[in-house]
Amino acid sequence: MDRDRCRNILKDHFVLFSVEGTAEAAIINSLIENDALIVPHDHLVSDYTDATRYYTRTRKAKDIVDRYFNVNYRSATANGLAIARIVDTSSGKFVLPKSLKDEAEVLSFYTKPEIEMLVIHREGAFREWERASRKDRSLRPNVFCKSTLGIKDERGDRFLSDYWSDCGKLIHAIKVYSETAHRDRDELMLVDLLK
User: Fold this and answer.
1) Rounded to the nearest 5 degrees, what angle is found at the Cα of 19, between the Cα atoms of 18 and 25?
2) CB distance 5 to 194 below 8 Å
């Protein structure tokens, strides 16, 4: 999707964030709490189980339809609903029923290859990562984080909430990562969510 069109959708629709994992949830939560998203705060859709949480872990299209499509998302300030999926691969299918295709925009933001790349950038260790990954082509970012950076619990709930609570460092990592990552022409990344 064209990035300018994406940003316009995020500005003028109600937005439901559907996050894949604990790391994605911690990151989106930090961005929301620090008003760092292009989405107006009053356009964020609450989780159906917790009205104080502005993302959901619900990921299947059918479940989202069942839980979130019982509300009219059109208003003077919003042109409907946008479902912003924060996922690590493009392999998962997300298809709304034909009868509802015009009721919501679906945007997928990819955190590939792995969310640990944000940790590497946050720690200022990208050059070290490049050297290590050139020596060992099979080296994965999560192994590098553990062995070189000493970050052993990079997927734990408590660690992630604390680690990404410094939104300034998170935003910096997102922006730097977007400059170094390979991105397909119309691929959306976390940087496209930022103000």
Assistant:
1) 130
2) no
Burial of 127 (0-12, 13-18, 19+ CB in 10 A): exposed
Question: Please, what is the end-to-end C-alpha distance for the chain in angstroms?
Answer: 18
Measured from the Cβ of residue 27, the count of other Cβ atoms closer than 10 Å reads 26
Residue 116 and residue 144 in contact, taking contact as beta carbons nearer than 8 Å: yes
pLDDT tens per residue, range 113-155:
778 899 999 999 999 999 999 999 999 998 999 999 998 765 6
Q: Please tell me the distance from the alpha carbon of residue 98 to that of residue 178, in angstroms, as a whole number.
A: 34
Residues near 22 by beta carbon (within 8 Å), at least 6 away in sequence = 155, 156, 157, 160
Quote the radius of gyration of the chain (alpha carbons, Å).
Answer: 17
DSSP class of 101: G
* pTM across the whole model: 0.93
Q: What's the order of all strands across the beta sheet hosting 14-19?
A: 14-19, 81-87, 104-110
Query: Shortest CA distance to 53 belongs to which of 30, 71, 75?
Result: 30
Sequence-ordered list of residues with C-beta below 8 angstroms from that of 21, at least 6 positions apart, any chain: 88, 115, 155
Tokens of 92: 């998962």
Q: Tokens 């997300």 — which residue?
A: 94
Length of the chain: 195
Nearest 5°: the CA angle 16, 18, 20 is 170
